[in-house]
């Protein structure tokens, strides 16, 4: 038979002896003192300090960004200044697609061109054409200070005729724009009279645009200003031209009623590197394009319609009545 397993039991605790007469009862054992919380060390304090400084810097950056965006979107011009776009950028590849400076394809772009005025000086148009410029929009006039005399209101651009003649000689398709400052119907009519004279004998392959961006135009309500601009655009169409309205995004959002101008193509300036969502036929994407043959920066644009083909097909481009 197997030996029986011995089971060892812990002996029962003996009760503490009762205190005898005259003796005080024993005090129960006191609980151990609570552990003191350790204070964060120097390393932890440094980490918290660094984190706080980072959050403060982030807050400063956010505030400055908001301020800069608001300032850049004021009535002085399109939002966000750029730092120059080479002529070689936005070139067409062998498949016929344009690519921007970030390498993104612009499949809807048809042509790339520039707009110029007296501020570009005397342009070497042969070098500009060789750099890949497909078209030119040339300023032919601008409004001035109104003194009650129409002949003192509108002015010719000093480089208009030379620029137009050089483009014609080299076969560069030409459109025009005039910088409007008109806030009354007589001022608008004075600008149009100058424009009519400037276009005498010229044929345009591209639209004639009304440049609507001057700060003085904000004296009018959006409805009033838009009606004035629409009247000018209808006059251009009556002459046999393809009318277009030029402005920048913030001006379109705040100073114009774009539904009134919906019958006319929009040439929109926005320098934030992404094609604007607002409907447009041309997009001016930089104001400082680096073009051979031009000493100063030039505005560059892409067109999303074959304007030359449309104008030729419709028999437009020359002022009627000449």
Q: Describe the biggest sheet? A: 8 strands, mixed, barrel
What's the arrangement of strands in the largest beta sheet? 4-5-7-8-9-10-11-12
Can you give the helix content as a percent range? 25-40%
Q: Which shape, going by the Cα principal axes? A: globular
Radius of gyration: 38 Å
Low-confidence stretches: 1-8, 66-76, 79-84
Average predicted local confidence, pLDDT: 80
Derived structural class: alpha/beta
Number of strands: 12
SSE order in H/E notation?
A: HEEEEHEEHEHEHEHEEEH
Tell me what portion of residues adopts beta-strand conformation. Answer: 15-25%
- End-to-end CA span: 137 Å
Individual helix count: 7
Could you describe the 3D structure shown?
This protein is of the alpha/beta class and 322 residues long. It contains 7 helices and 12 strands. The protein has helices spanning 42-72, 125-130, 160-170, 185-198, 222-239, 249-254, 307-314; strands at residues 85-86, 98-99, 105-106, 111-116, 135-143, 154-156, 174-179, 208-211, 243-248, 265-269, 282-290, 298-303. Helix 5 links the parallel strand 8 and strand 9 (243-248). Helix 4 runs parallel beside helix 5. The longest helix is centred in the N-terminal third of the chain and has 31 residues, at 42-72.
Task: Give a concise summary.
The protein is α/β, with parallel strands linked by helices and 322 residues long. It has 7 helices and 12 strands.
């Amino acid at each position: 038979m197997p030996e029986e397993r011995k089971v060892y039991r812990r002996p029962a605790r003996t009760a503490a002896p009762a205190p005898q007469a005259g003796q005080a009862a024993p005090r129960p054992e006191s609980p151990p003192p609570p552990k003191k919380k350790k204070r964060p060390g120097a390393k932890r304090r440094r980490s918290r300090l660094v984190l706080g400084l980072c959050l403060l810097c982030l807050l400063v950056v956010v505030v400055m960004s908001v301020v800069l965006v608001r300032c850049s979107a004021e009535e002085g011009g399109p939002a966000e200044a750029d730092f120059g776009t080479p002529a070689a950028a936005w070139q067409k590849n062998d498949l016929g697609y344009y690519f921007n400076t970030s390498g993104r394809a612009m499949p809807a772009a048809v042509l790339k061109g520039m707009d110029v005025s007296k501020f570009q000086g005397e342009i070497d148009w042969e070098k500009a054409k060789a750099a890949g410029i497909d078209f030119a929009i040339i300023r032919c006039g601008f409004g001035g200070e109104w003194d009650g005399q129409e002949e003192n209101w509108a002015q010719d651009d000093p480089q208009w005729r030379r620029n137009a003649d050089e483009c014609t000689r080299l076969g560069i398709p030409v459109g025009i724009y005039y910088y409007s400052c008109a806030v009354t119907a007589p001022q608008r009519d004075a600008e149009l009279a100058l424009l009519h004279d400037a276009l005498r004998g010229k044929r345009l392959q591209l639209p004639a645009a009304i440049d609507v961006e001057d700060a003085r135009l904000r004296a009018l309500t959006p409805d009033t200003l838009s009606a004035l601009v629409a009247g000018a655009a209808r006059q251009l169409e009556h002459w046999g031209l393809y009318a277009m309205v030029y402005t920048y995004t913030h001006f379109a959002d705040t100073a114009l009623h774009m539904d009134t101008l919906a019958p006319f193509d929009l040439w929109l300036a926005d320098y934030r590197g992404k094609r604007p969502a607002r409907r447009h036929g041309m997009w001016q994407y930089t104001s400082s394009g680096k073009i051979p043959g031009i000493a100063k920066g030039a505005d560059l644009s892409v067109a999303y319609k074959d304007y030359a083909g449309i104008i030729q097909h419709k028999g437009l481009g020359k002022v009627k009545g000449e």
